[in-house]
Specification:
Belongs to the ABC transporter superfamily. InterPro entries: AAA+_ATPase (IPR003593), ABC_transp_ATP-bind (IPR050319), ABC_transporter-like_ATP-bd (IPR003439), ABC_transporter-like_CS (IPR017871), Oligopep_ABC_C (IPR013563), P-loop_NTPase (IPR027417). This is Oligopeptide/dipeptide ABC transporter, ATPase subunit. It comes from Chloroflexus aurantiacus (strain ATCC 29366 / DSM 635 / J-10-fl). There is one protein chain. By secondary structure, this protein is α/β, with parallel strands linked by helices. The protein has a domain of 94 residues. Helix 3 packs across helix 4 and helix 4 crosses helix 5. The relative contact order is 0.13. The structure holds adenosine-5'-triphosphate (ATP). The site of adenosine-5'-triphosphate has 13 residues, from strand 2 and helix 1.
């Protein structure tokens, strides 16, 4: 295994030029390959131990596929996924199984991911037994401990998933993911399917668990408002590529990529006065198909400030200072070209985040 070690050790996870292509075939008996969906097309980022990286972008831009390819639920087409310096893409058999215990996923739809015919206790106990982490009575004790950890009554172990609310089911999904004592968790839109009133509780729970257990998260969401609480840094994805990455407050106060500016202009502000004045940057057209992405910068077909170069050459992903990366030919002037309404919105969101940062969060239990 030591031969696979290739990292400096500063990061728990390092993703290098990750690509996940899906073949598109036609025909029933003789399947012809008619194209390739480039769901993830050259993504690179690193996550420090104990850090949360938010990953945002519109539906279909490749966020879930990135998460799955990191966990080796999909075997990437190319690129490296270094976990403590070991390239997961090179692991097979028992070595891969052992590594999989340390990297887990929490899914968007907790109901679809919980077996309706198993009791909650058995659902949580299953991975403990599979990985032989406890035996006999100790399994039951561990299940009760996990239920308590996620704010559920341990007596619920004998009930079935349908007997719980959406928020409680997501807590069960979290308990199952944590049952194997992972270091890294991909949270794939964990609150998108929940009522707004419950979303904050689940996000707070994830934050508290991170502090208690020293977890590292990749937190996937489709808008910036969900990730702003939980993320240390945020990566913005568009059509299979990361187009901007920075510390949360920096990304919100000084978005360099016009796509981030547009996403930011859509973040709701819980202040009726500001909200009334809010104007969104409306992006023309839909996200182009990853089957046939535009040449040059993938975003140029919808970009309000695109120039000829953007149509011809792909912009490199460059550090514009202190780890604020962007892939945009006009990144240096984009902030001055940013529409006035979007600038005001960015300022309002940044102020809101600064105010939120001072608040003490508390976990509420759902007994
Ligand atoms: N197994 C697959 N086979 C073929 N294409 C796929 C497969 N999985 C995903 N895709 C395609 O890859 C692209 C990225 O999908 P992905 O689910 O990763 O996006 P996403 O950003 O997570 O979107 P959402 O928020 O809707 O889940 C989409 O065009 C999708 O249709």
């Amino acid at each position: 295994m030591t031969t696979l070690k290739q990292s400096s050790g500063e990061y728990l996870i390092e993703i290098k030029d990750l690509r996940m292509y899906f073949p598109v075939t036609r025909g029933i008996i003789f399947q012809r390959r008619v194209g390739t969906v480039k769901a993830v097309d050259g993504v690179s980022f690193s996550i420090k131990r104990g850090e949360t990286l938010g990953l945002v972008g519109e539906s279909g831009c490749g966020k879930s596929t990135t998460g799955r390819a990191i966990l080796q639920l999909y075997r990437p087409t190319s690129g490296q996924v270094l976990f403590e310096g070991t390239d997961l893409t090179k692991l097979k058999g028992n070595a891969l199984r052992q590594m999989r215990r340390r990297v887990q996923m929490i899914f968007q739809d907790p109901y679809a991911s919980l077996n309706p015919r198993m009791t909650v206790g058995d659902i949580i106990a299953e991975p403990i037994r599979v990985h032989k982490l406890r035996e006999g009575r100790a399994v039951r004790e561990r299940v009760e401990e996990l239920l308590h950890l996620v704010g559920l009554n341990p007596a619920f172990a004998n009930r079935y998933p349908h007997e719980f609310s959406g928020g409680q089911r997501q807590r069960i999904g979290i308990a199952r993911a944590l049952a194997v004592e992972p270091d890294f968790v991909v949270c794939d839109e964990p609150v998108s399917a929940l009522d707004v009133s419950i979303q904050a509780q689940v996000v707070n729970l994830l934050e508290e668990l991170q502090d208690k257990l020293g977890l590292t998260y990749l937190f996937i969401a489709h808008d910036l408002s969900v990730v702003n609480h939980i993320s240390d840094r945020v990566a913005v994805m568009y059509l299979g590529k990361v187009v901007e990455l920075a510390e949360g407050p920096k990304l919100y106060s000084m978005p360099l990529h016009p796509y981030t500016q547009a996403l930011l202009s859509a973040v709701p502000i819980p202040d009726p006065k500001v909200e009334k004045q809010r104007r969104r940057i409306i992006l023309e057209g839909d996200v182009p198909s990853p089957l046939n992405p535009p040449p040059g910068c993938h975003f140029h077909t919808r970009c309000p400030i695109a120039i000829q170069k953007c149509k011809e050459e792909e912009p490199p992903f460059v550090d514009y200072g202190n780890g604020h990366f962007a892939a945009c030919w006009r990144a240096r002037e984009s902030i001055t070209l940013m529409p006035e309404v979007a600038r005001k919105q960015a300022e309002a969101v940044a102020a809101r985040i600064a105010a939120d940062a001072g608040k003490v969060k508390s976990i509420s239990h759902e007994h």
